[in-house]
Amino acid sequence: MSTEYMVRVAEDPADREACFVVRKEVFVGEQGVPEDIEYDAYDATALHVLAVRADGTALGTGRLLYGEAAAAKTGGDLTVGSLGRLAVTREARGLGVGAALVGAIEDAARARGLAAVDLHAQTHALGFYERLGYVAYGPEFPDAGIPHLAMRKVL
Question: Is 38:32 a contact under the CB 8 Å cutoff?
Answer without folding.
Answer: no
